[in-house]
Amino acid sequence: MKDVLALIEQKKKKFAQLPLFEFMQDKSIDPRQRLAFAPCIAPFVMSFGELNKYAFREEPTSDPIQEIINKHTYEDDHHWIWLLEDLEKLGIDRALKFTDALRFLWSEETNISRRVAYELYRYTVQATPIQKLVVIEAAETTGNVFLSVSSQVVLELKSTSTTNQEYRYFGGGHLVVDTGHTYCSPKAKRFIESIQLTNEERTQYFQIVDKVFEVFTELTDEFLAYTKTHNISQPFTTKAQQEQPLKVALLTHR
To answer: Is the predicted pLDDT of residue 243 greater than 80, yes or no?
Structure first.
């Protein structure tokens, strides 16, 4: 299993260099705008809670690896609540007609956010505990990179705000919780590293790790594209749409 974990660590270094994270660390941009993609993450985060309950978790079990996964799912299945809190604090909790909300959640702008959940389900439903563990480890590693950056943005946001609000999803508290998961304990790590794989299993898991990082990379591209076309002050309207009334007004007064 050490070879698989080494590959995940290698992929993590490359993932951390993606354009989204460069954008999020650009202090010349308002920290709120650097989180303008926040509405787009909702389909994935909401689905991830259910993946923990219905795909990753399997009870009862006598398998020690599945036991580790089960404990992890109980630590990870409720983080969507933190996202809802943060969306409200970021001012994104705007009134939308129910049909407009559905259009957004199933739009092209959130296509990858939905597809990530489907891909994770594809590789974990009725899978062996070891395969589930590989998928979870790869997914959580991308999350670690994301939260390491978003928590710094939140610190900047707090320093420029008069409310000093805590952000439980994007902030440092979430990062601490994720790095303190059961499967991250020294005992669990030693056990996981000691797992022996056949050559066939190793090849299969290498391919799965590649696929997980590939789809999460696409997700970061989707987030970055959204920040370039949307202002967080009007999160569900493109910048072009916001400028249109001004252009009409200028033409009218010529």
So the answer is: no
